């Protein structure tokens, strides 16, 4: 009543419209918070252009291309996405060579994007967006937003989503070539956004459909070597998996798919009383499996795993006590501060699976998301995890720094970029010629809220708290990304 | 007068037993037997287009028998003659690998192109009779169906 009276007194048409339509009210609130640059709409592609060096100097030995992906279009006049994970994928390409950097970004040319452009409305259902019947979906790839991560090996560049096929793009121009079918009878089978890589580049991945999953094995050049459908112990939702040298590891959180629904998360139910199960599968014989029982927790991202001499399997993860971030937090990020406070952020946790069947889950208070590690040690014992941190300091709900956390001591080496930076996932790039874990650089993009520009930072991974060795700035700002890869030695 | 009455009688017989009438509708009754021409747009020219023609909501929406099922090589037009004028719906798919079935991936998503009359598209399922139905008048009808 108070608001109505004020609206009438103010005689504000905009305010009255906002009252009539809560989404308009949220959009207005988002426009007032400058961190909303992280989830702003980008109208179109960003043409290739040189980035300006604004701090330090890039290491001469750092050469390659950083590809990153994340949603960059959420709203259209006829209707909006209502969840962060459902915007159109924009692949960014940052080439670094000889101390210089160039920036370009291009949307994946998906069926979803074409249809929604034509209709002037976001109509396709997704992870948290209900969509409308105007989507007329006849298959999962028609909903494919190609917005979560990238695969770039063997001269291929794929934009990945988790519920459908990879979207192939030109690695130089980012022009879309179309959805990838790895084998004719496996057309449209899901290829998740979190492949795991062995040190030689061999790729393992999964695709989820309720109580079934497909396991993929690809050569380092991205050619299909093996694909097998397995039945899971339960229909858990999972976004990531992990692996040791010998095993694949699937963490079955008690966030269970109990019915088909749109949006997808409406079909999931949180059943903490059922605890978390960990399914371990022998890479050499996928029928050889073992299950460990752990207390209930929720997560999106896992670190690379390893097996110790006595058979104990260890890995780290970024976990929460419940899945409220996926259900609600990622909705509120998009809808803005008016939507209310975000749920607690993920912290770094460790898991040990002992050969005698005991499983140990140990959480910490280190705020952490987007964990990465030295790819030379994938599947082998390691002690460093690189991750985004400082999430939720202030009202942004997005990270403002990077850290290298030592899994033995729990100590973190932190770069806090301050409240005027939204810092994205940092990717570890080994220093050519080095062999020790952590000898290399962290390469990360950020959104500089004061400059209203996307930046590229290069940090010494052994001295993260020293801050960037070099920072480059683009002549454009693109929204917050989820995941990326760095292709070392690729030419600009 | 007599001739008109005879025609009406025949039309009645046709409606009473559409399938039988269709079978026997030859040149002698050309005035009441219509022709349907179906062209199929295929991205690849491999294999055959398998099509099924339905004449009722019951059959189309609830897995009943088609009044006609046939196949034509991809890229060729299907011509169905001697149809009783009325309302019809078409389901089709392109049998690229020639195994006679519409193949799906292990999670049930079709891996061969398919389409319906009016190029109707359902939402998370096949379209209904209401979306796919079309009239075939005595003068005949033609549709171009894009297989995707």
Backbone CA Rg of chain B: 17 Å
| Overall helicity of chain A | under 10%
Can you count the helices of chain A? Answer: 5
Give the spatial strand order of the biggest sheet of chain A: 1-7-6-3-35
Biggest contact: A-B, 19 and 13 residues
Number of strand segments of chain A? 35
Q: How helix-rich are the residues of chain B, as a percent range?
A: 10-25%
**Please, what is the average pLDDT of chain B?**
83
Give the overall shape of chain A, derived from the CA principal axes: globular
Please give a quick description of this structure:
Chain A has 492 residues and is mainly β. Helices cover 10% and strands 40% of the residues of chain A.
Task: Set out the fold topology.
The complex is a heterodimer of chains A (492) and B (148).
Chain A: H1 2-10, H2 13-20, H3 22-32, E1 46-50, E2 52-56, E3 64-71, E4 75-76, E5 79-80, E6 89-97, E7 100-107, H4 111-119, E8 149-151, E9 157-160, E10 167-169, E11 176-179, E12 196-197, E13 203-209, E14 212-218, E15 224-231, E16 242-243, E17 247-252, E18 255-257, E19 268-270, E20 276-282, E21 285-294, E22 298-302, E23 306-307, E24 313-320, H5 324-335, E25 347-353, E26 359-367, E27 369-372, E28 384-389, E29 401-406, E30 412-416, E31 421-430, E32 440-448, E33 453-460, E34 470-473, E35 483-488
Antiparallel strand pairs in A: 1-7, 2-34, 3-6, 3-35, 4-5, 6-7, 8-9, 9-10, 10-11, 12-13, 13-14, 14-15, 16-17, 17-20, 18-19, 20-21, 22-24, 23-24, 24-25, 25-26, 27-28, 28-29, 29-30, 31-32, 32-33, 33-34
Helix pairs in contact in A: 1-2, 2-3
Chain B: H1 2-16, H2 18-24, E1 34-41, E2 48-54, H3 57-61, E3 68-73, E4 78-83, E5 86-95, E6 114-116, H4 129-132, E7 134-136, E8 141-146
Parallel strand pairs in B: 1-8
Antiparallel strand pairs in B: 1-4, 2-3, 2-5, 5-6, 5-7
Helix pairs in contact in B: 1-2
Can you offer a commentary on this structure?
The complex is a heterodimer of chains A (492) and B (148). With 492 residues, chain A is mostly beta strands. Chain A has helices at 2-10, 13-20, 22-32, 111-119, 324-335, and strands at residues 46-50, 52-56, 64-71, 75-76, 79-80, 89-97, 100-107, 149-151, 157-160, 167-169, 176-179, 196-197, 203-209, 212-218, 224-231, 242-243, 247-252, 255-257, 268-270, 276-282, 285-294, 298-302, 306-307, 313-320, 347-353, 359-367, 369-372, 384-389, 401-406, 412-416, 421-430, 440-448, 453-460, 470-473, 483-488. Chain A is built from 5 helices and 35 strands. In chain A, β6 and β7 (100-107) form a beta hairpin. The longest helix of chain A has 12 residues, at 324-335. Chain A starts with a helix and ends with a strand. Chain B is built from 4 helices and 8 strands. Classes of the chains: A mainly beta (492), B alpha+beta (148).
């Amino acid at each position: 009543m108070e608001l109505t009276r004020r609206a009438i007194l103010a005689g504000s048409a905009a305010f009255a419209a906002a009252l009539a339509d809560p989404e308009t009210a949220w959009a207005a609130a988002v426009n007032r918070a400058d961190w909303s640059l992280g989830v702003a709409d980008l109208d179109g592609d960003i043409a290739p252009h040189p980035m300006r060096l604004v701090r330090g100097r890039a290491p001469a030995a750092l050469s390659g291309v950083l590809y990153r992906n994340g949603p960059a279009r959420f709203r259209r006049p006829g209707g909006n996405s209502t969840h962060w994970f459902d915007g159109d994928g924009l692949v960014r390409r940052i080439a670094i060579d000889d101390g210089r950097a160039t920036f370009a970004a291009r949307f994946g040319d998906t069926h979803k994007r074409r249809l929604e452009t034509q209709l002037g409305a976001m109509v396709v259902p997704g992870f948290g967006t209900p969509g409308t019947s105007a989507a007329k979906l006849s298959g999962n790839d028609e909903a494919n937003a190609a917005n979560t991560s990238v695969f770039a090996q063997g001269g291929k560049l794929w934009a990945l989503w988790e519920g459908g096929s990879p979207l192939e793009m030109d690695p130089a121009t980012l022009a879309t070539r179309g959805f990838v079918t790895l084998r004719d009878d496996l057309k449209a089978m899901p290829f998740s956004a979190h492949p795991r890589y062995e040190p030689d580049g061999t790729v393992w991945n999964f695709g989820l459909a309720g109580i079934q999953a497909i396991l993929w094995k690809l050569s380092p050049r991205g050619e299909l070597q093996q694909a097998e459908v397995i039945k899971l112990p339960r229909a858990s939702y999972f976004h990531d998996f992990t692996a040791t040298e010998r095993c694949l590891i699937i963490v079955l959180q008690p966030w269970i798919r109990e019915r088909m629904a749109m949006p997808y998360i409406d079909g999931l139910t949180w059943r903490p009383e059922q605890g978390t199960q960990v399914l371990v599968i022998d890479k050499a014989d996928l029928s050889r499996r073992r299950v460990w029982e752990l207390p209930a927790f929720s997560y999106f991202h896992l670190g690379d795993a390893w097996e110790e001499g006595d058979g104990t399997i260890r890995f780290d993860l970024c976990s929460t006590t419940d899945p409220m971030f996926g259900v609600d937090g990622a909705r509120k990020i998009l809808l803005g501060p008016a939507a209310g406070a975000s749920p607690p952020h993920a912290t770094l946790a460790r898991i040990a699976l002992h050969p005698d069947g005991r499983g140990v889950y140990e959480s910490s208070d280190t705020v952490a998301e987007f964990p990465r590690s030295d790819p030379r040690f994938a599947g082998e014992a390691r002690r460093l995890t690189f991750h985004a941190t400082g999430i939720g300091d202030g009202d942004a709900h997005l990270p403002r720094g990077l850290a290298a956390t030592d899994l033995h001591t729990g100590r973190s080496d932190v770069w806090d970029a301050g409240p005027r930076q939204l810092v994205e996932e940092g990717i570890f790039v080994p220093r050519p010629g080095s062999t020790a874990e952590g000898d290399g650089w962290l390469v990360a993009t950020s959104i500089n809220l004061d400059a209203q520009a996307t930046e590229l930072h290069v940090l010494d991974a052994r001295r993260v708290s020293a801050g960037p060795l070099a920072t480059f700035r683009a002549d454009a700002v693109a929204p917050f990304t989820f995941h990326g890869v760095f292709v070392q030695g690729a030419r600009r | 007068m007599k001739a008109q009455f005879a025609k009406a009688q025949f039309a009645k017989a046709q409606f009473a037993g559409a399938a039988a009438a269709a079978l026997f509708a030859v040149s002698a009754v050309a005035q009441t037997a219509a022709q349907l021409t179906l062209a199929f747009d295929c991205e690849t020219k491999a294999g055959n287009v398998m099509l099924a023609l339905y004449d009722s909501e019951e059959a189309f929406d609830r897995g009943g028998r088609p009044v006609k099922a046939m196949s034509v090589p991809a890229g060729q037009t299907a011509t169905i003659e001697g149809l009783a004028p009325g309302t019809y719906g078409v389901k089709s798919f392109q049998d690229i690998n020639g195994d006679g079935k519409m193949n799906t991936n292990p999670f049930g998503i079709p891996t061969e192109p398919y389409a319906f009359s009016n190029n109707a598209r359902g939402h998370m399922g096949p379209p209904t009779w209401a979306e796919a139905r079309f009239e075939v008048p005595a003068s005949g009808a033609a549709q171009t169906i894009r297989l995707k």
